[in-house]
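Appendix C: a fully annotated inverse folding record. The material below is reproduced so that readers can follow the format used throughout the book. The structure is listed first as C-alpha cells, followed by the designed sequence.
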C-alpha cells in the first residue's frame, strides 16, 4: 500500500477557474495538434468564393494558364500565393 497525503488550501474562485482552464488546455493540446491559422492550399470551392467567380471560371483559368491548380490525389487545390496574386490583379 502507498501512503497518500491530502493537502487542503484556500483558493479564490477566479484562481481556481484559471487553474482548471490551464489544465484542460494542456490536456487538449496533447490530444489535438495545434493547426496553423493560415492555409497553404485552398479547395476549388474556397478559391471560387475568395475570388468571387464560378467553378467553371476556375476551370477555364486553369486551362488557359491564368490560375494554375495543384492536384493531390484526385482533389484539386490552389496555392495561397496564386490565389492572392490573382486577388490583387482583380481588385
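Designed amino acids, in order:
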Amino acid at each position: 500500500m502507498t501512503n497518500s497525503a491530502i493537502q487542503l488550501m484556500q483558493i479564490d474562485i477566479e484562481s481556481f477557474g484559471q487553474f482548471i482552464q490551464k489544465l484542460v488546455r494542456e490536456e487538449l493540446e496533447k490530444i489535438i495538434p495545434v493547426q496553423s491559422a493560415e492555409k497553404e492550399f485552398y479547395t476549388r470551392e474556397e478559391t471560387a468564393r475568395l475570388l468571387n467567380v464560378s467553378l467553371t471560371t476556375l476551370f477555364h483559368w486553369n486551362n488557359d494558364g491564368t490560375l494554375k491548380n495543384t492536384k493531390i490525389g484526385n482533389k484539386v487545390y490552389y496555392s495561397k500565393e496564386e490565389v492572392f496574386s490573382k486577388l490583387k490583379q482583380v481588385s
